[in-house]
Amino acid sequence: MKRLTKYDNDYFYYIVRTNIKKYRLKANMTTQQLADKSEFTHQFLRDLESLKLVRRPRLDTIGRIANALDVDIRQLFDELEEKK
Q1: Which positions ≥6 away from 84 have C-beta within 8 Å?
Q2: Which of 12-16, 28-32, 79-83 has the highest mean pLDDT?
Q3: Phi–psi pair at 68, nearest 5 degrees
């Protein structure tokens, strides 16, 4: 995967998708549990978390997922920590 910068179209989508998985794991939830709580399908959430696929979730979708994860939607836009 190419390195994304803040000027790439998919940069913020990448951050959101990565943070969804981070907060789901932090909440000790499976994708099925998050799907049930957010009323999305399991496959939709699996595809959303998969960085191999191009997904651009709508803002209301991100909001529903944030609510299901019990986090502020802004947390899903937090910058990613650099891996050393």
Answers
A1: none
A2: 28-32
A3: -65, -30
Residue-averaged pLDDT of the chain: 90
For helices 11-26 and 42-49, the axis angle rounded to 10 degrees is 120
DSSP codes, the chain? -PPP-TTSTTHHHHHHHHHHHHHHHHTT--HHHHHHHHT--HHHHHHHH-TTS-----HHHHHHHHHHHTS-GGGGGSPPPPP-
Distances (CA, A) of 60 to 5, 30, 51, 82: 24, 21, 20, 28
Q: Are 31 and 46 in contact (CB under 8 A)?
A: yes
23: amino acid identity, one letter: Y
pTM listed for this prediction? 0.87
